Amino acid sequence: MTVEGMFEVRTTSRVQFLDITSAVQREVTSSGVTEGVCWVYVHHTTAGVTINENADPSVVEDIIRTLERLVPMRGDYRHAEGNSDAHIKASLMGFSQAIPVRDGKLALGTWQGIFLCEFDGPRRRKVSVTVTSAP
Ligand code: ZN
């Protein structure tokens, strides 16, 4: 059994990591799947999705600051829209994550959360959640 869900989030700044763990868990719960895999997919080219620590907010701050150092907003880019850094950072984070589902819950590590990574906000962003039950 595979259940498709979707939700939208609104980001509030140009660069922002938004904790979407509880929104993803809501989709897992409403899917009715208890054992399987949850795929989270972001339908954009300047936003991505990653999993990392959601206990200490300075971890996310450090990731954002390091990405900014690696891929500065202004650089020798070709893309005329002027947001090449956002496209590159989104590709570095990736556009999907797979999380095991056990007992109807996302089987994340104790300190893990799922983050939508906004790099060209503020915008509305669409997130798909596909939950597949183990055979
Ligand atoms: Zn662009």
Shape designation: elongated
At the fourth level of CATH, the homologous superfamily is: YjbQ-like
What gyration radius follows from the Cα positions, in whole Å? 16 Å
CATH class: Mainly Beta
Number of helices: 3
Helix and strand element order: EEHEEHHEEEE
- Largest sheet report: 5 strands, antiparallel
- Bound ligand species: zinc ion
The low-confidence runs, each spanning 5 or more residues with pLDDT under 50, are: none
Q: What structural category characterises the helix and strand content?
A: alpha+beta
End-to-end Cα distance? 8 Å
The CATH topology annotation reads as: Jelly Rolls
The overall pLDDT average reads 97
Largest beta sheet: strand ordering: 1-8-3-5-6
Number of strands: 8
| Count of spatially separate domains | 1
CATH architecture: Sandwich
Strand percentage, roughly?
35-45%
Helix share of residues?
25-40%
Q: What this model shows, in words?
A:
With 135 residues, this protein is α+β, with helices and mostly antiparallel strands. The chain has a single domain, classed as Jelly Rolls (Sandwich), CATH 2.60.120.460. 26% of the residues lie in helices and 39% in strands. It is elongated and about 50 Å long. The model has no long low-confidence stretch (mean pLDDT 97). Bound molecules: zinc ion. Zinc ion (ZN) binds next to loops.
TL;DR?
The protein has 135 residues and is α+β, with helices and mostly antiparallel strands.
